Amino acid sequence: MNYELTQHASDVLREREIAVEWVERVLKNPLKVEPDEEDEALEHRLGKISEHGDRVLRVIVNTHIDPMRVITVYFDRALKGKL
Prior knowledge:
By secondary structure, this protein is α+β, with helices and mostly antiparallel strands. It has a single domain (3-79), classed as YaeB-like fold. It is built from 2 helices and 5 strands. It has helices spanning 7-15, 20-28; strands spanning 3-5, 32-35, 42-49, 55-62, 68-75. It has a 5-stranded mixed beta sheet. The chain is globular. The mean pLDDT is 93.
């Protein structure tokens, strides 16, 4: 998979102890894809992480550049049990 992480995304992964493998899994096989409400270049990819209590990982990427750039990553508390 061809992508790059912003410095912010790298920092978030380390601070929140989010595995890069989880990010790659969601990038490759999202359960849901949503457009960003404010920026048409951004896409929200969502996936369940079974190793983390089936919490929903939201990966926000800029798909208008090559390689696509991961902007930020977080567990979306509002979607727990809804995806």
